[in-house]
Amino acid sequence: MAHSVATPNVLTDPGMLWIAALGTADPTNTVTGGVFTDDPPVAYIPLGATEDGSTFSYQTSVEPIRVAEFFDPIKYATTERSGNVAFNLAHYTLSNYRRALNGGVAALVPTGAAGAELTTLTPPAPGSEVRAMILWESTDKTLRALFRQTIQGGEVQSAFKKAPDKAVIPCTFNLEMPVGASSPFTMWAAGTTRV
Q1: E strand or H helix at 160
Q2: Rounded mean pLDDT, 172-182
Q3: Whole-prediction pTM value?
Q4: Where are the domains of the chain?
């Protein structure tokens, strides 16, 4: 009897990213026809387009436990875990730059009369960085990931060059364990395609 391989349920396209203040309610995750049909709560602010999508990384480190009577480890124990979600924001605004500097989630507000508005950005003082929640949803609306407490820890380096190059805001939001939570992130699948 010949073996066969089922066609995989591949996941393509960059998806959508939102940012929210810590403690913002989870999406309701309403599913109809195998896809999410609800919008995230209004407290989730869209981050806009990215240069090349986003990357979620999660690493578990284990160390061997050894005893004198065996050459091989008798067990491996988890010693640490760490993760992050990284992306290059193409939506170049001072509000997004502020978020990359851990300066807060809310959009900056210009001052001045119409046509003479001025918006000012300064980095937060060390120790006063603002943590945030990051929500990602797949383009096909079958998968969501909520990163419950993050702090941006990557280098924010923007290159200003001749077109067609564009400036981006690189972000690496590192995952932290929220107080009272059992996990730094939660993933949800709509329907059965991603189970």
Answers
A1: none
A2: 95
A3: 0.92
A4: 43-55+84-106+124-189
